[in-house]
Amino acid sequence: MPLCFAPDDTLSKPLFLVPEGSLPPSLRPEAQAFAAAQGFTGALGQVCVLPDAAGGIGAALFGWGTPAARARGRFHLARAAEALPEDDWHLEGDLTAPEAEEAALAWLLAGYRFARYKAAAAPKARLKCPAGVDARRMETIAAAEALTRDLINTPASDMGPEELETAFFALAARHGAQAQAICGDDLLTEGLPMIHAVGRASPRAPRLLDLHWGDAGPRLTLVGKGVCFDTGGLDLKPSSSMGLMKKDMGGAATVMGLAQMIMALGLPLRLRVLVPAVENAVSGNAFRPQDILTSRKGLTVEVNNTDAEGRLVLADALALADEEAPDLLICMATLTGAARVALGPDLPPFYTNDNSLAAALSEAAAAVADPLWRMPFWQPYEPMIEPGIADLDNAPSGGMAGSVTAALFLRRFVTQTPRFAHFDIYGWQPSPAPARPKGAVGQGARAILAALPKVLAL
């Protein structure tokens, strides 16, 4: 990422965080008069550059607004990174430790640009990392978020199963991890039949990607949905719904970003990452509505909508992960529109039966400005995913509780692992916001990272 922290030994200019309706008393009277003449009031997001005695840049003010205004968003300092001229800056203002971390990360994330296909100028202002904030950790998190965004933003023409495999192997190589890909009709039909069924209609062969890292500590397994493009299959999506389906591998991109954080920070654990990478396409050998598939776990699944394919590929990957019974198993997927209807694009739901895990995730989400909302594995809805003709239904009729029934479906494939959580993420920023341009965005990874020391007693 081009935007970075300034070296600690660099001379820097003060950037004052100014609450609404006040100015720093340490400012000279002429500087206060200059700010007032510019209409600076301290409203959230305002920026005012102050001259020094020689007419150069002496300092800057950033409107810190009111607590109520700040609570309506996050990463506000990214606006200063975007607006300030090239120079080295340091913050002046009272921040809590979580606020200082959020401000530092906001500055770094403001430098993200997806420039693979078109040049894009990034901000040039640099910030000294605030006191008490771990600069290396923040830079590691920002770089991992950039990886996630780049993967999701890349169109399916350049990010199919094979290209996702290339990125996966590159991630493993950077951190000394072991990676393999299970590909080919014989291997998949034998051991991962639902991954094969979903991906077989595409000329871009389906595969399962598998990464191992670390040789001591608790076992953590991450499973991410890697549907590189989703036409809906024979239950074809309308064009209005297909337009964003390059992001249907957002779960894979997010667990890869999280894995990069874990490996780069050297967390003392044994990590496994599983990504079923497929393209849900249409051809003469596509799987069909009313087909009954037999999963890796032996459970049979009636296909009542070929557009509910994500849970099918995840089911085989989760069954494989569950055979090892890791200490914690996490699944991340851009799975249901129902989750967006319930909570919108900015607030992903997560599901777990473990109350201590849920509490740790919720606490971490609030602390690191990575919002999450717990939803229930609601057992009275179990009959909705039981069609009668097979063990499970991949798309219950009626449209009710779609995110919950999808989560219940996935849980059927996790029977040996003591702690399991499923995240139904969106992976997309529909309109620009501070530190989050329109386009791909990571969700949940930073909260999970923050929760791991408590959850796994690291």
UniProtKB/TrEMBL annotation:
Domain Cytosol aminopeptidase: from-to ranges: 305-312
Gene3D superfamilies reported in the protein's UniProt record: Leucine Aminopeptidase, subunit E, domain 1, Zn peptidases
GO terms classed as biological process: proteolysis
Claim: Hydrolase is one of the keywords in the record: yes
UniProt cross-references to CDD domains, sorted A to Z: Peptidase_M17
InterPro entries: Leucine_aapep/pepB (IPR011356), Macro_dom-like (IPR043472), Peptidase_M17_C (IPR000819), Peptidase_M17_N_1 (IPR048816)
Record GO terms (molecular function): manganese ion binding; metalloaminopeptidase activity
PROSITE patterns on file: CYTOSOL_AP
Transmembrane segments: none
Cross-referenced Pfam families: Peptidase_M17, Peptidase_M17_N_1
Keywords: Aminopeptidase, Hydrolase, Manganese, Protease
Family assignment from sequence similarity: Belongs to the peptidase M17 family.
Protein name: Leucyl aminopeptidase
Lineage of the species this protein comes from: Bacteria, Pseudomonadati, Pseudomonadota, Alphaproteobacteria, Rhodobacterales
